[in-house]
Amino acid sequence: MQFKINPKNLSTTALRVIPVLQGNAEGLISDKLGNISLSKNLFSGKKDTNYSLAIESQVVLLLGLGEDPDYKTMETSFRRVLAKSSELVEKEVLIDFPDSFSREQIEAALVGFQLGAYSLGFYKKEKAKDYSKLKVEVSMTIDKAKSLADRAQKIAQAKMEAFKLVDLPPNKITPEYLGDWAKNLGKKSTLEVKVFDVKKAKSEGLDAFLAVGRASAKDPKFIILEYRQPKAKLHLGLVGKGVTFDTGGLNVKTQGMHYMKSDMGGAAAVLATAQVVAELELPVNLTVIVPALENAIDKDAYLPSEVIGSHAGLSIEVIDTDAEGRLIVADGLSYLIKNYNVDQVIDLATLTGNSIGTFGYECAALFSNDGNLSHGLQQAGEEIGEKSWPLPLWETYGKEMESEIADIKNFNGKPFAGAITAAKFLQAFIHEHPAWAHLDIAGVAFGDSEFSKTKTGTAYGVSLLLRYLENQL
């Protein structure tokens, strides 16, 4: 997709897209289209509406955004252009922004417009419309317009990578694939990448990680990405759960298993975040860890009631092999904190169905031992449209995870407070780090969407983490 910013001569044959705010529709349409007038009954700029009309050789698409559109509204509205109005698009599109639009509104619009080109039909004989050579003219009265468009392209590309990592099938997205993905990113960016195989992971004491992955024919990979900037004042550590497919292990899942390719939504988010942070050259230090494996079943599968080790040195009683995500994230957290001097630690994991029972599909469950970190993530999420809401980490819940035979157990076996007790389990492995946050993204990383007939990846976490980081600068 090729962007041309503020062309001197606006195309008269391209699809012309004009975003319209409610309450200003009549004046804007008159300003942009001359003597054309529309009845308010046909189009008033109301949120989630659109209206198309032809003026001589040009087709015009008016996008209604409501009175005060937030970032997510802008992104979604513009995503619909290519995703739902493809019949209006030929070789060229002109996006004609009103003078009143802010940099943030334009960024969200340009990100969303590009996301509209994403299609799930990777393996279809008849491919979706190819927008790779689409010419996009952008008219806007903003300083440094070219850099704004470049930034929007990098954000959109990272989010589409996150979409793809979740949406592609598990015979494609394997632990080895994620390791190779990270290595390839390292070759074309300033990221340093390490990928531990089984032998190296064993020598590093990643025993809980290895226990979960030992039944799979696909070897686990422990992935580390390091991004460094000389002027950085913050070192953020990220851990993303990377279960590329989850059968549940010997506590096998009894329903919805075909959705379990999405159990690496946390990994997708932190990998894509590493990509966009490196491409934008943000003045921060970033260390990203992805424990990647399959939770499979064979003669070597780890057993319910088995006691396993961990990187932190704690013994773990395995009550449920389907509570595997917390085991590998625990090793990821411990390794990160013991080997890197990170100021803050955030993990993202599709960890518990209980988080969905609490919040539905509206927001992530947020846990943190640091009020500023928790508030910062909440604020960033509100600004960008990737919401989270805090739940407590009271010690009473920690007692639920006490084991008679080991230092801790991985599941309390009770049908309540499951997201909280999982978070308390993870907290036991952070070596008392004072600034840690856990985002349980089970309800927001993969779900129903107006852009697909089936559940798809959402890239939840990419925009959230980027906004959070930039708010710290």
UniProtKB/TrEMBL annotation:
Family matches, as Pfam families: Peptidase_M17
Name of the molecule in the record: Leucyl aminopeptidase
Gene Ontology annotations of biological process type: proteolysis
Organism: Algoriphagus boritolerans DSM 17298 = JCM 18970
GO cellular component labels: cytoplasm
All residue ranges annotated as the Cytosol aminopeptidase domain in the record: 164-465
Family according to the record: Belongs to the peptidase M17 family.
InterPro entries per record: Leucine_aapep/pepB, Macro_dom-like, Peptidase_M17_C
UniProt keyword annotations, A-Z: Aminopeptidase, Hydrolase, Manganese, Protease
A single MF term (Gene Ontology): manganese ion binding
